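User: Please predict the structure of the protein below. I'd like the answer in structure-token form so I can feed it into my own downstream comparison script.

Assistant: Understood. Taking the following sequence of 156 residues as input:
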Amino acid sequence: MRLVIGGDHAGFPMKGPVAELLKSWGHLVEDLGTHSIEPVDFPDIAQAVCAAIKEGRAERGVLVCGTGVGACIAGNKIPGIRAALCHDVYSAHQCVEHDDVNLLCLGAQIIGLKLAEEVLRAFLDARFSTEEHFRRRVAKLAELERQAARELGDAA
């Protein structure tokens, strides 16, 4: 699978090992930074990762910050991105199967690398359900995005 990964300075210590793990599983991984512990703003990294997903350079993405919360908020601001903060295996596969999530957010200060490995495997092995009720709900999410875009256009 083609993946994109990014993280801020708080996520940096986990991002590198996660990227190497994903590569060892045979995934193609594009690392969009940051590449040091120098402070950066997580919304900038999230924007780059989400752009790669939207442009089709990656099928899914992973964002790592301190708690994962900021990364998840930033990802969900971008139309077409469905981000989930997952620190457990169940949520990691369920978010893809039921909600067609394409961006996994992790908190480097919350979980260790071993649990992150299990969460990543569950996220990447999961596939969006073909059941109509899940597809209908995700279509409604897309409609919420379109409605918000129209309202922004009206406000301008």
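That's the full token string. The chain has one domain: 2-128.
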